[in-house]
Design brief:
With 126 residues, the chain is of the alpha+beta class. It has a single domain (6-125), classed as Trna Endonuclease, Chain: A, domain 1 (3-Layer(aba) Sandwich). Helices cover 37% and strands 28% of the residues. Strands 1-4-5-6-7 form a five-stranded mixed beta sheet, sandwiched between helices. It has a two-stranded antiparallel sheet with strand order 2-3. Helix 1 packs across helix 2.
Length: 126
């Protein structure tokens, strides 16, 4: 694991997401963007885990209910990818829940189905 701050890491991942978006453009399936972004993150030398399970702990009982992060970078940054016409508030709530369950501080919700990717990025803090 590289010695890096989560905010610096998020800026790097945003740059890589912009690179992917510039090459592919909007309109493809979410999985295409997710796989390409994971490839770019790993190519840049960072650890990126795909579909990382997140358990729910309730009253000291650990439930494996099926929550999965799209991408976990360097075991500290949650990246949820979308390719939708409109980002609904439930997507932000879902990402915030993942941050809370995994005790992560920062998450990025990235919607690739936009003309300019900067308009599709939401930073979420736990």
């Amino acid at each position: 694991m590289k010695n890096i701050d989560v905010n610096e890491l998020s800026n790097i991942v945003i740059g890589l997401a912009i690179k992917v978006h510039k090459k592919l453009g909007p309109g493809l399936l979410e999985n295409v963007y997710k796989e390409c972004l994971i490839y770019e993150i790993r190519k840049a030398g960072y650890i990126a885990e795909k579909e990382k399970p997140v358990p729910l702990i309730y009253e000291e009982i650990k439930f494996e209910i099926g929550y999965r992060l799209d991408i976990l970078v360097e075991n500290m940054l949650v990246v949820e990818t979308k390719s939708v016409e409109l980002v609904k508030s439930v997507y932000c709530a879902q990402t915030l829940t993942y941050l809370k369950l995994g005790e992560f501080k920062l998450g990025l919700l990235i919607n690739f189905n936009v003309k300019m990717l900067k308009d599709g990025i939401t930073r979420l803090i736990n």
